[in-house]
Amino acid sequence: MKKFIETLKNIWSITELRNRILFTVFILAVFRFGSFVVLPGVNPEALAAAASQRGANDILGLINAFTGGAFNNAAVFALGIMPYITASIIIQLLGFAVPYFQRLQQKEGESGRKKINQITRFLTVLITLVQGGGYLLMIKSTPGAVDATLNPSIFWFSNLIILSTGTVFAMWLGEKITDRGIGNGISLLIMAGIIATLPRAFFAELQTQLNQTSIIVFILELVVLFIVVLASVLIVQGVRKIPIQFAKRMVGRSSGNIPVSGARDYIPLKVNAAGVMPIIFAQAIMFLPGSIAGFFSEEAANTGLLLQLQNWKSLPYNIIFFFLVVIFTYVYTALLVNPQQYAEYLKRQNAFIPGIKPGKSTQDFIDNLTTRVTLPGSIFLGLISIFPALVGGFGVNDAFAIFFGGTSLLIMVGVVLDTLQQVESHLLMRKYDGLVKSGRLKGRSGMQPIGTNM
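User: That's the sequence. What structure does it adopt?
Assistant: Structure tokens below.
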């Protein structure tokens, strides 16, 4: 405890780090304040009543969790930063398929990144207009949610502008945190929204367990959550190091050259290179049965396999969800990790993997090793994705169960590790002890932060 207090004092004594932390806290407070400013002409109580009848893990519940309750509050930040995340994912996928975006990302350096950021911002506005229209349509269809005396044209036009402005402002707040604060701003805004729903879910589960069973069951739940978080940290930090060696070089004059052994280094292959993206893609696929059910009669939609695929706790849903996550992990890792680029880079640097011939043999070796390393990572992501359903089946309430896995847990773990790594860097630069007694936080250099472009 004394060591921890001393570390906090060291953090506070570094003026730049203290200012960055205070600035980040201030921006997060502004973001949370906007989550309670309600759109004009909207009754949030009616929306909350309608939301209470939905599951906590459906698509609307997931969006509400990411926005910290702003979605159900009909706030100016109701869409949060999600349109920007969608735009970033689209641009990133285009970078794998469209030569123009590949050139911007890989060959044009800083100017290319600026162009990509500008395109992402414009695409964010377009997506916000589309999603904002759908959100207002949902509000309009909710009984008692809209003031009947308000002119419909004014309601649509004004609130669509406010929602778009709110998303652009949230995007600007995230960029300011990245520039002047600590950590990745977009990721921190998402984490702030997720954590904002944690206290209510925590105390609701505590009250439920005290009323139904005992405090022992609740303590066991916390122990399980702690173990899952530790496992998530291990998988996020885990790397497979491929040793490489640079060729020998000659030192001295031509008449007496002395051969010097080449330096040794390694290529880090992330166990979970795909991050949370496979779960997001698989979750999007699993929302399709609910959309398809809308085209059938109520009797047909509520029978058979279609009904089970709309229940996130059912066995068929979780089996399909698990395998989709595993498949998408391999697909997304294949897009991110390019063995051919690794082999070409090693050849240009006059380096090689010991025991492996340069060129095609090196490419095949990295490809095979990536495939093997991805297997445990994909299985872990699959288990993490269905773990909320497992704990929910044991009586944990839905709102608290989502923190036992899925995108919520992985985002929180990844963002916290990334932020702590930056704090650690500031401490070590000024010759203070780091946040851990032995070793150092590895950060996530091989894992792209949310909302950034490669």
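Strands lie at 239-246, 249-251, 258-260, 264-270, 351-352.
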